[in-house]
């Protein structure tokens, strides 16, 4: 049996043969949760569903290893690109293994098979005359003595209205526009920061305009037949409307698949051309008969999973490449695209180290099934979604623990009770005088379950994964309601026959839930089947061929009478408030910030230990480190550590605002900050905010600045406001409307008490102010940490990347 399982699967005539791929994760960093739900986990759920249904399916993925980003990372870590790839491929593999991702093959694009397949495809499109040669103007760095690949160039985005000053040479991360490096304003070399110059270099181009008719025919037919997600259709149509242009397929790099052409032998293939071919080459590592999957469109359906930024490469570029060969390729039937999963107040970011990463989750002691469940209930299918720790806590405690876990534990624990109290761990037999078809409550449950199973299958076939999960969980809710309405504990004493029917039916629902949820939380399914004392590898099935679907629609017939179950135990553990707060603080800010915090905590712990340590004086007498330190000169005392917690920023409400009697540019406000009396505050906001908009408005107030007299009126605090770069626009930083007046604004991950009054000579405010800003999501932040109240985060109206003061 094990040998058959390991043997490569090949398409089978007359069966549904499904080839599933996930966008190849780039190998230069550790994947974060947004990457994991965006493609790898989503594809895994669908692959497991296909196996559950008895389809002949394989799931192919691997690490994308060539290109500039790898070379750049290798330079940063002072090693070779190959060493970087080896290191991060192993990390990716370990992360996905922990997440129970069921690849049939997880490979890599730096393999000999990739070179072989990629060069073979190139030769065919070259021979078919779908390529052109052209001279490009490319940026050349005289300091580094080389042409700069796209990602080695940064500059200002040329797109009107964007003008992001850190746009990459291939794509602007802010507006999403694909770019050529020479289009950037004020370009700079990412390695040495010098300004590169433009130089001519010859390259090969795929003539997309010549393939337009074939491509459009494929897209118009397959987007309907495959039920492409709306975001995929919109992105693809946008590309077609803008007009297809020849796309360069070669690059002046060393790390990549060499171009098999004499004139271009010093170049490699550009990663957009090379990486999707990785699906094919990794399949060739899985089986020598890879063409039976990839050149068999009559018998194989190709499903591809990815984040929205990858769409054009899979709906335009890759199909055009395959069409250009003239071979009978298995082209993508269905594409499933996710939007972005954001983290707390901002975006997950590999480059900035923001968010929870794949290697972090193992250290949380939160089980894998909880992580999988939360990510899948939060899957960003039609719009961006948000990861927050309180939301994860709510999903675990209310949905997994109180709904699903509670139902299963009630059923199995009651069956496991000794005779006289339960069924002594034996699934009861149902006497002839009762039946599921004739008992109204049980029949009503079965009808609902049957409808839910049909809806589940329909949703999953359309790759509506979040909907499929929601439907499965609805069956658990119905099971709980069934137990309550049946009052099984009363029936056990008053009507044992009917109680046997109810418990046998409930045990069948437990079995059914374990099957339906296997694609989503497989470790949960294994544990439930262990508690049912049934082998999961045999019973996890919802195959039409075996009649499983009809069978589970009569839940009282699912598990045989007389079967002995295993030992029930709780399936989920409550996540407490203090644990949530701990994780919020632990994963606040960037990874660099976390390292600084960890080092600071370690230093504080060390200092605490030193205080308690006994040391000897010159006479051999022991005295405490404290008394020893007191003997040292006070002049050698450590300077104060400047940390954001020293600022006393509170939620305030402006009770009254008027113009300063002696200054046209100043307002005088009376602000309630939770004290017995209001504070008088003078602000230079007249030019920016109308007087009527200042009345009864909640604001963020810095309360421990030294009072200052401004044109005869003493200002006792400062209202925080954000301004744009040229200071032509200013907006107030606003707490949530439900925030409590007087509550202190916090910075998750930072602890400490504010100074009673800031010493102007210490420049505490001036030091911290430079890191106060509004981010791209309009969230007010210190570095990457949002200004936070008990009711949520503080924001500005429209100023992005503004300075807060």
Protein model, in words:
This protein is an alpha+beta fold and 805 residues long. Helices cover 38% and strands 18% of the residues. The protein is built from 23 helices and 34 strands. The strands form eleven sheets. It has a five-stranded parallel β-sheet, sandwiched between helices. The chain has a five-stranded antiparallel β-sheet with strand order 22-21-20-23-26, with no helix packed on it. Strand 4 and strand 5 form a beta hairpin. The longest helix has 28 residues, at 389-416. Mean pLDDT is 88; it is low at 1-5 and 614-639. Belongs to the class-I aminoacyl-tRNA synthetase family. It comes from Flemingia macrophylla. It is an enzyme of class 6 (ligase). Residues 615-635 are annotated as: Disordered. It is found in: Cytoplasm.
Shape assignment: flat
Number of helices: 23
What is the rounded Rg? 32 Å
Structural class: alpha+beta
- Overall mean pLDDT score? 88
Oligomer: single chain
Number of DSSP E strands: 34
Strand order of the largest sheet: 3-2-1-13-14
β-strand percent reads 15-25%
**How can the largest sheet be summarized?**
5 strands, parallel
Low-confidence stretches: 1-5, 614-639
